[in-house]
Amino acid sequence: MFAENEVVKQYRLWLRLPGNAIVxxxxxxxxxxxxxxxxxxxxxxxxxxQAVTPATGSTLIFHPSHxxxxxxxxxxxxxxxxxxxxxxxxxxxxxxxxx
Length: 99
Known about the structure:
By secondary structure, this protein is of the alpha+beta class. It has 2 helices and 5 strands; from the N terminus they run ββαβββα.
């Protein structure tokens, strides 16, 4: 199946919407998490990568409805998670239990 200590990269989204609603999501692919941000803001989100270290980074999210588009309204960060706790494995377990 996979090595016990195998890790995978995932992406965490934190986004403040108008009315101070907060959206948090985790995904396996950066493009999918960015798409969630676009959908939650009805489009128009701008993403600006921020270098934290050469190996990792985060992405700030800007939208015209928040601070005239000059203040970040959210972020996406990459992180490593043990594969056994990854979204992929958790979803696989739910599917097996439902069958």
